[in-house]
Amino acid sequence: MTTLTICIICAFVIGYLCIALESLTKVNKAAIALLMCVVCWTLLMMNPSAYYPEVAGDGVIHHIAEVIEHHLGDAAGTLFFLMGAMTIVEIVDSNGGFNFVRDALKTRSKRKLMWRVAFMTFFLSAILDNLTTSIVMIMVLRKLVQSREERLLYAALIIISANSGGAFSPIGDVTTIMLWIKGVITTQGVLTEIFIPSLVSMIIPAIIISLSLKGKFDKEQNLPKAEVSQFTKAQRNIIFWLGVGGLIFVPIFKTITHLPPFMGILLVLGVLWTTTEIFHYNTDEDDTMAKRVSDIMTKIDLSTIMFFLGILMAVAVLQEIGVLTAMGEGLNEAFSGNYYLINGIIGVLSSIVDNVPLVAGCMGMYPVAAEGAMAVDGIFWQLLAYCAGVGGSMLIIGSAAGVVVMGLEKITFGWYLKRITWIAFVGYLCGILIYWVERMLLF
């Protein structure tokens, strides 16, 4: 390992620690992520030929520009998807679309609400995706729990439930989509063999968290009055079904057109935007503009978007210099043949760095075999889908769902590490144990 590579790793680790200690440093995590990203790429540019020996002379500069554009394109797709989903959910929420969902979940019992939120999040994330589901559920949660201290516990459970629900569905998480498109897992395989481990990885943390929730909500706190809307009930329902139904339609749109998911999100946003403008056409209230999409978009938390950009592009540097691949090869050599340990460690790593490049590295490192653990729906690939998805719950910045909830609810890294990490880890291990039992009984 070269000195320059060590410097890049150190820059990433220092930046990561500053993000983790945001509550102490009082410096916004987005600023640190952007600095970390630029510093890592700048260090790489100090001796680019060391990492791209196949590119001769000055051509290496042009090559790196193409590499950055490639990674930026991938990151932009994720960011536009995130911005589109956040805007759609905000539109539905600001126009009273979530009122009947709130009423469906409504209960004064704190523990009953917790279980309803957990299961709805779990199954919704399998249909939508863990990122979109987290945004939807946080918006609904804000209408049900007014106490911030208690709402943080529910929000943490939403992160765990969303990641667990996304792991057993081929369209529930970015990593499962990658493995599904690659053809190493099948829809039937993950649904039948990963469902129960994923469910256990949600139920165990829910049981532990429920011990901290006792009693009932105050009636006034738990049941706030619905906002007055200039739209009729029928119009609010149309907005809800266009928004949430559109989000469900996004993976279908991708399958039909083969366009990136963010194109589907933009389609749904365009349709919903047009519809609300038509509904607003006949309203004369002075506050109408406050509910229009052009104003709603100003409420999107851009610091979360910038944080996501910085993290994704910083991890891309580690991918380019071969650190992630070397890490995977090291795991393979150290635990040769023990796929439970290999994937278990990959899952823990996925809570530290983005799980997308980790899974991409694994797909490039391990060939698909005709039979055995490396075959389609083999132990390795199914465990990879589970561990990379569920493992991200152990740290709040370990998954897209965690990052967006962190931004929406202003949860600090330290609070999550202290209160939730060990709970998510216990659920994670229990899920792996259940999968091992399943394989022992079935095969």
Explain what this protein looks like in three dimensions.
- The chain is mainly α.
- Helix content is 73%, strand content 0%.
- The longest helix has 36 residues, at 59-94.
Could you give a short description of this structure?
With 443 residues, the chain is mainly α. It contains 23 helices and no strands.
Strand content: under 5%
How many helices? The count is 23
Shape: globular
Distance between the termini: 42 Å
Largest sheet: none
pLDDT averaged residue by residue = 82
Helix content: over 70%
Main attributes of the structure:
single chain, 443 residues, mainly alpha, 23 helices, 73% helix, globular
Describe how the helices and strands are arranged.
Layout: H1 3-20, H2 22-25, H3 29-45, H4 59-94, H5 99-105, H6 110-127, H7 130-144, H8 148-167, H9 174-182, H10 187-193, H11 195-210, H12 219-222, H13 233-257, H14 261-280, H15 293-296, H16 302-320, H17 323-334, H18 339-349, H19 355-365, H20 379-390, H21 400-409, H22 413-419, H23 421-442
Helix pairs in contact: 1-3, 3-16, 4-7, 4-13, 4-14, 4-16, 5-7, 6-7, 6-8, 6-11, 7-8, 7-21, 8-11, 8-20, 8-21, 9-19, 11-23, 13-14, 17-19, 18-20, 20-23
